[in-house]
Specification:
This protein is mostly helical. The chain contains 3 helices and 2 strands; from the N terminus they run H-H-E-E-H. The longest helix has 33 residues, at 72-104.
Amino acid sequence: MDNKKGMIGEFLEFLNEYKVVALAIAFIVGVAATALIKSLVDNVIMPIITPFIPGGAWQTATFSIGPIVIGWGAFLGQIINFVIIAFVVFFVAKKVLKEEKVGKK
């Protein structure tokens, strides 16, 4: 019995030391934020851009060079999605790192 309690204690120490629960929460929030940002790009930003895309359907917008067809519409959506996510991560990281610097002084 003592061995099991020791193993459970080690496991709880591992969870605490490596902040596994906080990491799991951050991952879940990140997935939810990604879905929200993808929806923003797909349903708000890209419909505004759509009138400027030949054919009007940004998701299926393509560029043909002979037999080669490049699907640039979906790629453009992913670029915008990435830029928004990168900006949010930058903003959060800057805020967190600033607070860490203030806390160290």
